[in-house]
Amino acid sequence: MKLKVTFAILFCAAFITQAQMKKWTLEECVNYAVENNLTIEQFELNLENVQIDEVDAWGNFIPNLTANTVASERSGLVTNPNTNIIEPGQIFSTSAGINSGITLFDGLRNIYQLQRAKLNAIATQYGLEDLKDDIRLNVAEAYLQVLSNKEALKVAQAQYQVTEQDLKRTKELVESGVLPRGDLLDIEATAATQEQQIVNGEAQVLIAKVNLAQLLQITDYQNFDVADESYEVPPSEIMATSPETIFAKALTFRNDIKLSEANIDIANKDLQIAKGARYPTLNAFFNYNTFYTNQFRTIPDGMGGFIPFRADFIDQLWLNDGISYGFQLNVPIFNGFSTENSIKRSKIDVKRAELQLEQTKLELENTIQQAHVNVATFGKAYEAAQKTLDARKLAYDYAKERYEAGLLNSFDFGQAQARVDNAEASVIRSKYDYIFRLKILEFFYGVPLSLE
Asked: Is the four-CA dihedral 213, 219, 222, 225 of positive or negative sign?
């Protein structure tokens, strides 16, 4: 039994450790953010409300049905419901009824309301998907920032290891009298600076991971991490596509464009609803009512006289019941310009929605043009940074040979190494900046976010 308990504990511990050591890929981060983001969850509640509005619109086509009942007792001067004579006394009575009504015609406003509710549901869905697109891009940027900082930290750690080797070798040369002690102090200062860079790099990695975790609504920052991979610039043919072509395709699937188009349709429906108020409204109704009272009524006794009589409760409900039904026509004549002003406002809203669509298209076109320029710019910056790094490394190798031969002092050698460090950091920054801009442009062309 103890062995089984121990095995279970070890299994659970191993499972927890494995869960804690999970390394998130970009796709996993994007999918998790879309499923768990609080802003998205709030927007989904708005979508549920809109869907309820559609059910309300359907309800306008169904007859309403209400039931009512009243029980009362009066004393003093009262009206006998059996004789309609006012007389002193005490009356207990109860009444009940069923009422139903339906709108037969209201200028087609019920139909337009239903169509509007359906359009609003579609527009809200587009808005939700547009929000998801924004979150996907934010997660991708935060994810790449983590990778960039982690790679920069690895470079700093590798540089520090090289400096440690130089420090060890310099100590031996100083102790043997080949190099002055000042050279050792310079190398020690370089090592201390690199240690500080490592500390700062670790902090930058932690901050980037916290930022990404917050986008994913994850609070266990210490056990959150992304996959330890160094990504190279992925192959892409997107730059062979012109910005005009990318823009034309984006117009066919971008949710912000579809949202603006749906808002125009909604505004036009609002205009039709407003115009419907000009037309007469025709309603049909049906009512059934009955009552009971404790008062007596007089009935013929068969001999030329009358005798008091009171039927029991059930019999009175049948005897006193009645129905009414019919139609009601309301014709609008004048309501203080309310209908006409509502129509004018709706026309303005249609124009505003049309202008918003054009504005959205202009912003999208400008964003794509800028994204295309950014890819070209950051691509050239990345190539230039690589060339600079190659040159700095050659200069460093030459400086190292001269330093080891005693032809270069430690300060100048440290400067050569610092230039390599800066060049490597520049390559890392420009590489991930280029990758992100490349993914943005591909995203506008309909390519899913991926580092493959």
From this structure: negative
